[in-house]
Amino acid sequence: MLQINNISKSFHQRGIVLDNLNLEVKDGDSVSITGPSGSGKTTLLNIIGLLDKPDSGEILFRGEEVLKYNAEESAGYRNKNIGFVFQDHLLLPYLTVRENILLPLLAAKKKDDEYSESSAHADKLMENLGISGFANKYPHNISGGEAQRVTLVRALVNKPSILLADEPTGSLDKANADILGDLLLKMNRDFGISLVLATHSTGLAEKMAIQLNLIDGKLVGRSKIL
Ligand SMILES: Nc1ncnc2c1ncn2[C@@H]1O[C@H](COP(=O)(O)OP(=O)(O)O)[C@@H](O)[C@H]1O
Ligand SMILES: [Mg+2]
User: Fold this and answer.
1) Which helix (H) or strand (E) holds 195?
2) Which ligand is nearest to the CA of 165?
3) Ligand 2 centroid to residue 171 C-alpha, Å
4) N or C: where does the chain have the smaller number of CB atoms within 10 Å of the terminal CB?
5) pLDDT (tens digit per residue) in 54-108
6) Contact 124, 156 (CB under 8 A)
7) Number of the ligand closest to the Cα of 16
8) Is 121 part of a structural domain of the chain?
């Protein structure tokens, strides 16, 4: 589904962060990327999500080069195919949980019937992830663990093929981190969504079928399934 070929990225002062890096993500894969702080995990996820541009290399999504997209096409690609979960929940404080979750549907400019289908999908996801009970609450009235599950639903509401998660459990205690990790895997199993997650947590990383380490700008690793 996703092929990342020979991606390189440097920053002034820091120098080379990603060095001719390759990664292939197939439908239904779950991939963890670990590595020390500053090794380039966030940079890589941002490049995959077209939030940042590499200096060279190509990214093929279902065979199409996505790096040539203009801003509007990039936004369309993201909305349609990619879900993001970041370390901090980034929910809008003046919208309810349900309104936060439905926000990406507005961005995707759905037609009425598509909107109601997606909104039904959102309800199903909320039930699956155990957050239906506080759909009408505001973010400041729910816990950090609950808020992170809300962002997961929001990331999945447009039925992306791939979920990019950057330190998704980084600000959670162990109990909530375990819950979120299990829910990520459940989404992978039940909905076939591919996971690519950057994490410091070896516990979370080891739950993924493919475990990669970002070292000296390249990915090295092993796979549970090979
Ligand atoms: N926009 C930027 N400008 C300059 N340097 C950056 C920028 N983004 C990241 N870096 C540098 O690139 C390196 C990799 O950062 P990052 O991808 O955030 O690593 P990680 O997520 O693995 O901690 C770091 O040394 C960081 O300081
Ligand atoms: Mg990071």
Assistant:
1) strand 194-198
2) 2
3) 13
4) C
5) 999 999 999 999 999 999 999 999 989 999 998 887 899 999 999 999 988 877 7
6) no
7) 1
8) yes
Q: Does any domain span residue 212?
A: yes
Strand ranges, E, within 40-173: 56-61, 64-65, 82-85, 162-166
Structural domain contains residue 53 = no
Judge if the beta carbon of residue 35 lies within 6 A of ligand 1: yes
Q: Which domain holds residue 109?
A: 28-39+80-223
Instruction: Note whether residue 7 is domain-resident.
Output: no
Number of domains in the chain: 1
Q: Is 41 in the pocket of ligand 1 (CB under 6 A)?
A: yes
d(CA 2, CA 194): 10
Reported residue count of the chain is 226
pLDDT for 224? 55
Mutate to test the pocket of ligand 1, among 33, 37, 42 (most ligand atoms within 8 A of CB): 42
Dist. CA 30–CA 20, nearest whole Å: 22
Regarding pTM above 0.90, the answer is yes
Q: Which atom of ligand 1 is nearest to the CA of 39?
A: 22
Q: How far is the CA of 10 from the centre of ligand 1 (A)?
A: 9
DSSP label of 176: H
CATH number at residue 194: 3.40.50.300
pLDDT at 225 over 90: no
| pLDDT, tens only, 198-212 | 999 999 999 999 999
- The response to whether residue 152 sits with its C-beta less than 6 Å from ligand 1 reads no
Q: Is 52 in the pocket of ligand 1 (CB under 6 A)?
A: no
